[in-house]
Amino acid sequence: MPTERELAISPIVQESVQHNTRVISNIRALTASLFGVASGILGLESYSGFAFYLLGTFFVSILIWALLANGKQGQYFQGPLSELWAGDVLGGSMSFVLTWTLFYGLVRA
Amino acid sequence: MPSYLSRPLTVLGLLFLSHACYSAYEHSTSIPHQPSNLASTPISSSPTSTSLPLDISLETVMSVIMICVGLVVGAEELKPITWRVWAGKVERESGGGGPFQGLEDRLGFVDIRAKRKEFADWVRDQDGENQR
């Protein structure tokens, strides 16, 4: 976290911070339910399903880092670890479980 | 990667995913249920969890990867959060605009000779048109 002095020297644009957070959470919400669909089709159960979700979110994080942030994560996020790599992972897990169970039940009725 | 690839990639991935989903469903219905076999085997080694063919699994994973790439490529661009980087980008893109436009346009900064010359040229043009 930057100190007051650093903030005074190089101010932060709140609008951009909000915009970046919104972009990340949009992608997370869409991909989380997508991973749920995939793990339901694959028929994953218990731990392997959650492992699949974590692996998938990590893959999406890498994609965001490489394609959207161009490798310069410090330029777009105040705390890259919590905003890019771990942002909205827990919130997305709810929709993941929802679509996971739905598609597991649909495919293996 | 150019952003116009986003939509086709996502749509193609969704198509593959729905195909994989229907294939998995068909596969699960094509296997006849064997209640005696199910009762005798422990739940952990139930046949449904492992019997998905490799091509359906691969199709699922590949389509998910395609949709992920499509979504990330099609997402809005991130904006730089530090003020100087952001302001510089805005100024460059709008051609001299930017958040400090109000300061640049103060009356004391007006180049009065350039403005006069501009006005004189304009008047000359107007006269020329009137005489024609």
From TrEMBL, chain A:
List where in the cell it is found: Endoplasmic reticulum membrane
Q: What is the topology of this protein in the membrane according to its UniProt annotation? A: Multi-pass membrane protein
Q: Does the keyword Endoplasmic reticulum apply?
A: yes
Q: Which domain of life is it from?
A: Eukaryota
Keywords attached to this Swiss-Prot or TrEMBL record, sorted alphabetically, are: Endoplasmic reticulum, Membrane, Transmembrane, Transmembrane helix
TM ranges are 50-68, 89-107
Q: What is its main location?
A: endoplasmic reticulum
On whether Membrane is a keyword of this UniProt record, the answer is: yes
Concerning its family, UniProt says: Belongs to the EMC6 family.
**What name has this protein been given in UniProt?**
ER membrane protein complex subunit 6
**Which species is this record about?**
Cladonia borealis
TrEMBL record, chain B:
Q: How does it sit in the membrane?
A: Multi-pass membrane protein
Signal peptide boundaries: 1-23
Q: Which InterPro entries match?
A: EMC_subunit (IPR053279), MMgT (IPR018937)
Enumerate the Gene Ontology biological process terms.
Answer: protein folding in endoplasmic reticulum
Q: What is its main location?
A: membrane
Which locations, inside or outside the cell, does it occupy?
Endomembrane system
Give GO cellular component annotations, separated by semicolons.
EMC complex
Protein family according to the UniProt entry: Belongs to the membrane magnesium transporter (TC 1.A.67) family.
Q: Which PANTHER family match?
A: ER MEMBRANE PROTEIN COMPLEX SUBUNIT 5 (PTHR28144)
Q: What is this protein called?
A: Transmembrane protein 32 protein
Tell me the organism. Answer: Cladonia borealis
